[in-house]
Design a protein that fits this description.
Order of helices and strands: HEHHHHHEH
Structural class: mainly alpha
Strand content: under 5%
Keywords: Periplasm, Signal, Transport
Number of domains: 1
InterPro entries: SBP
Distance between the termini: 23 Å
Shape: globular
Number of helices: 7
Organism: Christiangramia aestuarii
Protein name: Extracellular solute-binding protein
Pfam family, one: SBP_bac_8
Length: 124
């Protein structure tokens, strides 16, 4: 039996739809940022920028969230989500305010040391 674990919201949503007794807990949840980028001088840079514009458009993000509840980055998309769907999305304001942002700089500076300490503890 598993009482609690960490995972992506989409996996819990799929399990929930399949009838599994799983739920999300937002207080103390962790969230991170991802980024789109186009390599300078890319031969298909214009196409890449059009894709990024499409992927960030409110309508596209709402459709995406309807299929897998990962948080939209466009505030207009977030406002369009029905309340039932928003309850599964980490970037819904009520969920986001209970979470903690991942501190990438901390992990760059301390990650290796903490991994070594964790592995030493776990191997006892």
């Amino acid at each position: 039996d598993v009482v609690m674990t960490s995972t992506y919201t989409g996996r819990i949503a799929d399990a929930h739809r399949a009838g599994r007794n799983l739920a999300l807990v937002w207080p103390g949840s962790l969230y991170g940022m991802d980024y789109w980028a186009v390599v300078k001088g890319s031969k298909r840079g214009a196409e890449a920028r059009r894709f990024i514009a499409f992927a960030n458009a409110p309508d596209a993000q709402v459709r995406y969230v309807e299929n897998i509840p990962y948080g939209p980055t466009n505030r207009q998309a977030a406002q369009r989500l029905p309340a039932q769907l928003a309850s599964w999305v980490p970037t819904a304001p009520a969920n986001l305010e209970q979470g903690l942002a991942m501190d990438d700089e901390f992990w760059v500076e301390h990650g290796e040391e903490l991994e070594e300490r964790f592995n030493a503890w776990a191997s006892q």
